[in-house]
Amino acid sequence: MASAFTTLINRPFASWSQDKRQLWATILLTAVFAIYPLLTDDDSNIDTIANAMSYATLALGLNIVVGFAGLLDLGYAAFFAIGAYYYGIFTAYQIMPPWSEAWAPLAYVGLVEKINQGGPDLVHFTLSFWLALPTGALVAGFFGVLFGAPTLKLRGDYLAIVTLGFGEIVPILARNMESVTNGAAGLNGVKGPTIPAIKAFGFDGYSFGVAATPYYYVGMVLVAILVFSSIRLRDSRIGRAWMAVREDETAASAMGINLRNFKLLAFAIGASFSGFTGVFFVSKLQVATPEMFNFSVSSMLIVMVVLGGMGSVWGVVLGAGLLQLLQTWILPQTTNVLHDIGHAIGSDILIAADLVQWTQMFFGIIIVVMMLFRRDGLIPATRTQPKLEMEEQQADVKRGGFVNVDRIEKWNPGTGNALEIKDVTVRFGGLVALNKVNLTVPAGGVIAVIGPNGSGKSTLFNAITGLVPAEGSIKFEGMELIGLRPDEVLEKGVARTFQNIRLFPKLTVLENVLIGQHCRLKTLPFGAIFRPPAAKAEEAGALRKALDIIGLFGNRLTPRANHMVAGLSYANRRRVEVSRALASRPRILLLDEPTAGMNPNETLELAEQIGELNAMGLTILIIEHKLDVVTRLANRVTVLDHGDVIAEGTANEVQRNEEVLTAYLGRAHRAKIEAQDAAAKENANG
Amino acid sequence: MTLGDLWLQQLINGLNLGAMYSLLALGFTLVYCIMELINFSHFNVFMVGAFIALGVLKLMGMDGQSVILTGLPLIGVLTLTFLITMFSSGMIGVGIERLLLRPLRAVTGPAAMILTIGVSYILFNIILIGIGGDTRNFANPLPSVAWNIGGAVLRMRDVLIWGITIVLMLGLTYFVQYTKLGKGMRATAQDPEAARMMGVEVDNVVALSFFIGSALAGASGLIFGLYYNYAKVDMGFAAGLRAFTAAVLGGIGNVPGAMLGGVLIGLIESGSSQLIGQLWADVVIFSILVIVLVFRPAGLLGRQAPNKS
User: Which residue in chain B has the smallest CA separation from A362?
Assistant: First the structure.
């Protein structure tokens, strides 16, 4: 009884599902904001909130670039400027080329009008606000791609400085290109939105003018649209790909994500959010000057995102709101209070105090404090992790491979050779890491690669999967792999795991496995946002498949499906990595020391599971140091030393090869083999 | 002035700018090669350095360009100003590292870089609120001795700026190449973990690199004041970006590269001012930044950064 009571007091809606709680919270929030202008007469408050909304939309756009995709863009205001100038140029009275008949068709559709201010006839652009919103987003998105294309190859910190430079160049251009932008004086008299008359309904049309309320509602709709789009994108194939890129570019690429396209997409979508807002902002202010878009705007947006939480949609909205509150209410009010106290106690310092001057100081302090003490922001993007029940935490090491195997589709290995590696050479500067290596993996077989550390085993895998450039020929089912990007190699059906586990540590088990399916899914941004039936079905199918795959490991992963990978045990992370590779539905699986760091029991378990995968028809190429695993699994073994193949044959053959014993296995192993052979001989004789 | 004279004059101007940018670029490069961190607070350590120098000169009785010194008094005043400015700026750098960046050393991702943006903001506003945002006349005791070379004018201050810069660079090169601490620094730059195991006190090396970088930024701020005769709170942004471009152009993490890059950027700035106008100089410089990063990310002399894989 008591506990039910405290539950009711502390968490009154605990019995609701999380989705239901979120839905109602959103509805309530929307209602409060929708009603607010009706309750107040103070236009300045409404105006302030409308401004906060435009900052929120900007911050949401920046959040896609910085928070989702992890691309630190310090010149984000440039796209804001592009949107703003786009609308400004096409409505203001400063930019008016001379009239000629060539403009007549545009005048006919209402985009321009002929005016005369005493002198020759001029063209006045009359772009509609409603048309400018989406086209402004497109224009800014186009510039996003244009700026992004050459720079996105760069490492994160270089990108920051290049975007900072871009952010600097755009206001300079706005200032210097006077014939288009009216220079430093800027554009003024930018037209506010109008709603055209609809005579049939007796509606005479409406002009927004300078009243704050209509902008408030438009701003609210914009925030709603962008929050909705952000959440939908985040929870889709697109959002997962961005987060994978943010966490580990190499692994993301090896898991089938086209780095260039997805970075550009983030840049373009972020830029178009910004262009969208630029149109809105300039129509509200009705002026555009170069100073409105300098570094201080970009950095204020960074502060909003950092404060709210990078990657957290509601967080950045909150961050934008709080900063606006700080600037327009908290600091002026506190200043007034200080003045009152100053007058009361006669302190000149307090009377002269003006905290509004300190706004940027507070920005700096907010950044430093958040980075030192709360890097995930006020509303962290990572969700709380469900607690595990006692029995969910227990899993016995057992023999016999997977459970619920029947839920996984079998493979048809085909015939002939799956992988044919011919004369592959890899050089790092003067060092030859692989020297004319030849290796063949028959379809449906298990081939092991062994050799001392530094012998080129992992380099071989990197060459196959496109992570290092190689000479020679690597053919997979007849298709040449050399020259392909890692994501293209994966798409062809070659999946891998890494020697030193490269999962996406801050994502959940399920998300990691879903990212593995990336190249087999097709949802594009449009589908991700609007979720047509096809996209919905695809996502549901992907989720089911992911659960089936982690279900193979029984009680190990399934209860932890929504846990961050960073918190898993070593062996479980290995299992997730195998699951992630399987999720891409490969035709050959490359395992790089899959049992490294596992105890003997876990090793045995995983070895049997690998054997079972092979039995289901999956071709496997494995690097392994543990000889018992190799002996148990491999049909044939290739031994590498210093980049050369020194032996090739069955596990039994290579163990007895003199060169292999010298280079790799060592004297102890020789003694063991000799003892075994002697015992076998004795048995045969006796 | 003939065209040749104009270009000679721009060469002189460019070398002055280059001296300033080189010193500033060294700070970016030193911190980057030790920690692989772009230190945005460096922009405003430079600015604060200029104000410290202004304050020191004022304390010694200089006021605008009214007090002119020659001979030993000039050398004494300048030496003292440089020493105090460089030491104070250096200590600001050490403070930033010790108090704010050290707790983030083990944190991966952009947190440390974002933090330095915040620090930069704070430094900016300390000066803005404490001293004001207007242009300050710089206290400048240099006599206006100048020589005519054809139509171009070579002022004594130009020669002085070059001289001081060369001395500082030689000092730094000697320190990095031949002293024990300098060797520890280079070792840390290559592999912090191995350096630590070989007995290099990595914490001290990091603090030292911040000290040297910030001290050079302070010297650069003082040179800015002596050259332009003013100091202003927003002077750090443009100069810092150009200096960073210089560091990247030379190959970030590479000490001679920063010196070379700085001089090149200075010359490019004065040259493009001459050719297409001051308004477009920044556009040219940032375009170079983008082009270098895209086509030769290692810079002219090659990038040297710690081996964090």
Answer: B122
